[in-house]
């Protein structure tokens, strides 16, 4: 993609000397007392100053090459540097339906590519993106434009997380009728029921859902496709079906005592602690009583989210227990730094082997074995190996398991002709998101496993393009 703004007469020699402006963040002491957002980001003056650090690099700009959605970052930063915030928001919105979300929760791949990261530090692209998206939202400046003439085509979207929202928006913009099916009581998927409020305020997601409603998208909630209605039944009512159901099924470690009271799966723990009760199923409307000592097992972003949640629920001692070292940790380093600021401890090269109950039957302690690293495994990361005789006991009041996630296997099991492979992941043609079943497309975490919001958006855009070709009666496998 060419940058919208071809060239700007910027003085690169002067700009390269400019240091990062710094964004606003609540203190650790203040933020652990509530579930409100931690990062306050930029105000207008700071945003313009920070964006003015951008060198407006010649094509191909490294930041754009690193962005899976192909956001025109230099153009947006130029507008921000001129205090043209709504124009900047429109640049981001041209390629991403969720800039206010990506700016908050994505690990900023674009910034890793920024040439200034080797100098004083990359331009703070993510937080600038969130700032201008918020400005546009507050000014009602980003309505979804839909054509007056409708095509008559009907598209069913299963799942209302990032992939589902992307396809729903792309389809409604093309004049199709769109209905989104969601298993939870409210739309938003992982954006509402997975990501904690202190990273992404739920009102931001709800505003986006309202935008889609205003554009004509219909939502059917409390409906699990595969159980309440089948994909084949949807195909009988719609011209195409998109599956964007994410990866919300939790993996288990299958070690003794794992089913004791007081041991939570991360998805259940986060939902109970972070989601308002009035939009939860009745059986999950209890906030976990975590006690004083909490262990979170795992090393990804979800483990960090759980640990930070446990701190906010009043735990005095929270340990993340991870079987490798920091070098192999899969999550966002920035989030990890924030969780350490909030008092979480990370125990590397350790893994649980057994849980023990106390007199009341609830988990009371756990046996942990120390690990060392061996040769790399299939993932390329060095394999953790238990050190014989290194076991020790730690007392715990609550344990949260955050060790891996897979798609709901129900869709594959209940849909004839829909091929899946290991752990229920849906098989697709990677170039266009077409599944093995005619008229059914898929993208996002139910295809590739847990990944970034922006990667789900990028693959969902590709699937939407294929759905459009399919609806137009074109052969969508020909490119
Ligand atoms: Fe600006 Fe960095 Fe992108 Fe260059 S790489 S255009 S400096 S944001």
Would you spell out the secondary-structure blueprint of this structure?
Blueprint: H1 12-15, E1 24-25, H2 28-31, E2 39-41, H3 44-51, H4 62-66, H5 73-81, H6 85-93, H7 99-105, H8 109-113, H9 125-138, E3 154-158, H10 162-173, E4 177-181, H11 190-193, H12 202-215, E5 218-220, H13 231-237, E6 240-243, E7 249-250, E8 263-265, H14 266-274, E9 293-297, H15 301-312, E10 317-321, H16 333-341, E11 345-347, E12 350-357, E13 363-376, E14 382-386, E15 392-395, E16 398-401, E17 405-406, H17 410-414, E18 440-442, H18 445-448, H19 453-471
Parallel strand pairs: 3-4, 3-6, 4-5, 6-18, 8-16, 9-10, 9-16, 10-11
Antiparallel strand pairs: 1-2, 7-17, 12-13, 13-14, 13-15
Helix pairs in contact: 3-5, 5-6, 5-9, 6-9, 7-9, 10-19, 14-15
Bound molecules: iron/sulfur cluster (SF4).
Residues 54-57, 61-63, 73-74, 77, 114-116, 123, 125 line the site of iron/sulfur cluster.
